[in-house]
Amino acid sequence: MPDAAAHLPFFYGSISRSEAEEYLKLAGMSDGLFLLRQCLRNLGGYVLSMVFNLQFYHYPIERQMNGTYAIAGGKPHCGPEELCEFYSKDADGLCCTLRKPCNRPSSIDPQPGVFDSMRENMVREYVRQTWKLEGDALEQAIISQAPQVEKLIATTAHERMAWYHSNISRDEAERRLYAGAQPDGKFLLRERKENGTYALSLIYGKTVYHYRIDQDKAGKYSIPEGTKFDTLWQLVEYLKLKPDGLIYYLKETCPNPSARAQRRLASLNADGYTPEPIPMDTSVYESPYSDPEELKDKKLFLKRDHLMIDEVELGSGNFGCVKKGVYKMRKKQIDVAIKVLKSNNEKGVKDEMMSEAHIMHQLDNPYIVRMIGVCEAESLMLVMEMASGGPLNKFLSSRKDEIPVSNVVELMQQVAIGMKYLEDKNFVHRDLAARNVLLVNQHYAKISDFGLSKALAADDSYYKARTAGKWPLKWYAPECILFHKFSSKSDVWSYGITMWEAFTYGQKPYKKMKGPEVISFIEQGKRMDSPPDCPPEMYKLMNQCWTY
Ligand code: ADP
Ligand code: MG
């Protein structure tokens, strides 16, 4: 989660006022010389430090709840960069316009601030407590869900936290704190019955102290005379780092015995719009076999009478078609997609489908379509988890206007997580393309179609195809086409093409060029142009994927 200003050369991160003044002095103290630094008091805020008439001026920039940034009394802007851009043209109440950025010396990176790690801890704790994840699963969830979780945290996150005890009385709070060990800094937060305000109760030296939490007119929370925060959650995280007026800092959670019961699915946005569930809250985040009861029945071949096949076709290909269905497990029924092999097919195609099944059988990741099993009946069938949103390219091209580019970034990040998993397991996909990324919903993508995939032998770093087949040349790295060599590196190349498809909202790569023309285009060192409105960081990344 980089800072919104991290890319600005005149952003210094978390430096003090006097350090800022030192830098401005070193840079010559000309009128309109300016730099940007992180605000130490306000989460997500900045301070603009500048010079006029040999004097220093420091303007706090606040981040509002709706995500915009503004200097007190000034106009809101969508980011710190846009704000600086604006004040470089119009002083609008500042001492003068921003004229010359005081850039960081090239040897110095922005100073990471206490809030950076706090934000990360908040997301980490939230994901851990809400979905009870640990280890790799926790790390993956954090990476893929940080933007959504940050949004949730902004509003109702405290309700999910173990330290939140809803509306218990002062006496009950004391009873809970005195129960068991009583280390300094053991705390809980509760809602006060009187008027919907909150209080913090804290043990120090075997005594419980209670602090009222004030809320100002703008809705910000603070301990009387303390730092103000947009959310209770931020207040608690901050007080874990420094006492800020309390007798001691918050150290140990006094857990609410009924906190588990408060788990909710997606929370409501302020405008009452219900967002789609985030990946962890869907039924396909974990394998249906993650339930030990269901695992008992796990076999590669499924019983035909547990499978109900709908007439609805989800898609089709050379092999036959993909149908919708329901598979009956021990405790639950799950929606499935069934790849049905065309009847009386030659043997080769059947082998191919079995090879696809054997690959999928070994994979288990939230961002990869899972196989439930194979069923041999009226024809050979591959039974998979359902991803009802369909292929990414179609999804994006049909809903261009509704889907912001940040949503595309989010989905491509999930694809990256799935591909990293594949690489770690030593598999090459060989057919990564937007058509083979399926959506569970607008915010949840899974990699599918393992028809061309291969498991690499333990000591091999690539797979060598004996003969070329019906290959998706536009998605292939030069070494695939020239030497038939396939590796995780060539999957990275395909990932770049998939990114390009995604950021163009489902256009065809290399326009009308034919496969062989694409090869000479690449050999000449040329690459596709940036999709319109594609964030430059994303275009840079796809070009890196296309490193020869
Ligand atoms: P092919 O090897 O022919 O490309 P795919 O595995 O890509 O076959 O599947 C073809 C189509 O079937 C997909 O584009 C999609 O529309 C549909 N489909 C495949 N798997 C699923 C699934 N798990 N959930 C929903 N639809 C699916
Ligand atoms: Mg496909």
From TrEMBL:
<protein>
    <recommendedName>
        <fullName>Tyrosine-protein kinase</fullName>
        <ecNumber>2.7.10.2</ecNumber>
    </recommendedName>
</protein>
<dbReference type="GO" id="GO:0045582">
    <property type="term" value="P:positive regulation of T cell differentiation"/>
</dbReference>
<keyword id="KW-0597">Phosphoprotein</keyword>
<feature type="binding site">
    <location>
        <position position="339"/>
    </location>
    <ligand>
        <name>ATP</name>
    </ligand>
</feature>
<dbReference type="InterPro" id="IPR020635">
    <property type="entry name" value="Tyr_kinase_cat_dom"/>
</dbReference>
<keyword id="KW-0829">Tyrosine-protein kinase</keyword>
<dbReference type="InterPro" id="IPR008266">
    <property type="entry name" value="Tyr_kinase_AS"/>
</dbReference>
<dbReference type="Pfam" id="PF00017">
    <property type="entry name" value="SH2"/>
</dbReference>
<dbReference type="InterPro" id="IPR036860">
    <property type="entry name" value="SH2_dom_sf"/>
</dbReference>
<keyword id="KW-0067">ATP-binding</keyword>
<dbReference type="GO" id="GO:0002250">
    <property type="term" value="P:adaptive immune response"/>
</dbReference>
<dbReference type="GO" id="GO:0045059">
    <property type="term" value="P:positive thymic T cell selection"/>
</dbReference>
<dbReference type="InterPro" id="IPR017441">
    <property type="entry name" value="Protein_kinase_ATP_BS"/>
</dbReference>
<dbReference type="InterPro" id="IPR023420">
    <property type="entry name" value="Kinase_SYK/ZAP-70_inter-SH2_sf"/>
</dbReference>
<keyword id="KW-1003">Cell membrane</keyword>
<dbReference type="Pfam" id="PF07714">
    <property type="entry name" value="PK_Tyr_Ser-Thr"/>
</dbReference>
<feature type="domain" description="Protein kinase">
    <location>
        <begin position="308"/>
        <end position="548"/>
    </location>
</feature>
<dbReference type="GO" id="GO:0004715">
    <property type="term" value="F:non-membrane spanning protein tyrosine kinase activity"/>
</dbReference>
<keyword id="KW-0472">Membrane</keyword>
<dbReference type="InterPro" id="IPR000980">
    <property type="entry name" value="SH2"/>
</dbReference>
<dbReference type="GO" id="GO:0043410">
    <property type="term" value="P:positive regulation of MAPK cascade"/>
</dbReference>
<dbReference type="GO" id="GO:0005737">
    <property type="term" value="C:cytoplasm"/>
</dbReference>
<dbReference type="GO" id="GO:0050852">
    <property type="term" value="P:T cell receptor signaling pathway"/>
</dbReference>
<keyword id="KW-0963">Cytoplasm</keyword>
<dbReference type="GO" id="GO:0045121">
    <property type="term" value="C:membrane raft"/>
</dbReference>
<keyword id="KW-0391">Immunity</keyword>
<dbReference type="InterPro" id="IPR001245">
    <property type="entry name" value="Ser-Thr/Tyr_kinase_cat_dom"/>
</dbReference>
<dbReference type="GO" id="GO:0005524">
    <property type="term" value="F:ATP binding"/>
</dbReference>
<keyword id="KW-0832">Ubl conjugation</keyword>
<dbReference type="GO" id="GO:0042101">
    <property type="term" value="C:T cell receptor complex"/>
</dbReference>
<keyword id="KW-0808">Transferase</keyword>
<keyword id="KW-1017">Isopeptide bond</keyword>
<dbReference type="InterPro" id="IPR000719">
    <property type="entry name" value="Prot_kinase_dom"/>
</dbReference>
<feature type="domain" description="SH2">
    <location>
        <begin position="10"/>
        <end position="102"/>
    </location>
</feature>
<keyword id="KW-0547">Nucleotide-binding</keyword>
<comment type="similarity">
    <text>Belongs to the protein kinase superfamily. Tyr protein kinase family.</text>
</comment>
<keyword id="KW-0418">Kinase</keyword>
<dbReference type="InterPro" id="IPR050198">
    <property type="entry name" value="Non-receptor_tyrosine_kinases"/>
</dbReference>
<dbReference type="InterPro" id="IPR035838">
    <property type="entry name" value="SYK/ZAP-70_N_SH2"/>
</dbReference>
<feature type="domain" description="SH2">
    <location>
        <begin position="163"/>
        <end position="254"/>
    </location>
</feature>
<keyword id="KW-1064">Adaptive immunity</keyword>
<keyword id="KW-0727">SH2 domain</keyword>
